[in-house]
Automatic annotation (TrEMBL):
It is a multi-pass membrane protein. It is found in: Endomembrane system. Signal peptide: none annotated. This is ABC transporter domain-containing protein. The keyword Magnesium does not apply. GO terms for molecular function: ATP binding; ATP hydrolysis activity; ATPase-coupled transmembrane transporter activity. It comes from Spodoptera exigua. Pfam families: ABC_tran. Gene3D superfamilies: P-loop containing nucleotide triphosphate hydrolases (3.40.50.300). InterPro entries: ABC_transporter-like_ATP-bd, ABC_transporter_C-like, P-loop_NTPase. SUPFAM superfamilies: P-loop containing nucleoside triphosphate hydrolases. Residues 1-139 form the ABC transporter domain. It comes from the Eukaryota.
Length: 173
């Protein structure tokens, strides 16, 4: 599903509402037939995965950024990195998954495009079990072709997950 509209039209707010990050004054949002206001936030976060417009990277290692609860195997993590096009970059780092990431500006060597791909890899790790994957301009720092490849990779990783993506330009969907 794609949502396209001009800046400020509420696209990001809609995704944040679906993820339970904001509240609505009327109406309701249903996930698998359940009103999200009645679903515990922890359960909702397992069912609805959000890749925000400005993804955050936290000080620590790449592994900690991808799998903060340490529940995924190395194989699963590398698979997610391969899916989003980060495998070569990360495998070329001397520390691999243990390479250092700083919170400011994504850290040394982490461009906005790479930070977006890290957020997508994090989502890919959780998307297989999610009901919905919400992508808010998931690769705004990438060209249109690279973004389409990223969306196709996420769809392949989670074939039974509903993917909702937001874009300002129609060539981005």
């Amino acid at each position: 599903v794609a949502i396209c509209g001009r800046s400020g039209s509420g696209k990001s707010t809609l995704l944040l509402t679906c993820a339970g990050a904001t509240t609505i004054s009327s109406g309701r949002v249903l996930v698998d037939g359940h009103d999200i206001r009645r679903v515990p936030l922890r359960a909702l976060r397992h069912r609805v995965v959000l890749v925000p417009q400005d993804p955050a990277m936290f000080s620590g290692t790449l592994r900690e950024n991808l799998d903060p609860l340490a529940v995924h195997t190395d194989e699963e993590i590398w698979h997610s990195l391969r899916a989003v096009g980060l495998f070569d970059f990360v495998s070329s780092q001397p520390a691999g998954l243990e390479c250092s990431v700083c919170s400011r500006s994504g850290g040394a060597g982490w461009s906005a495009g790479r930070a977006g791909r890290v957020a997508a890899a994090r989502a890919a790790l959780h998307a297989r079990l999610a009901a919905a994957l919400l992508l808010d301009e998931p690769a705004a720092a990438l060209d249109a072709g690279a973004e389409r490849a990223l969306l196709a990779a996420l769809a392949a990783v989670a074939p039974h997950t509903t993917i909702i993506t937001v874009a300002v330009l129609t060539d981005r969907i």
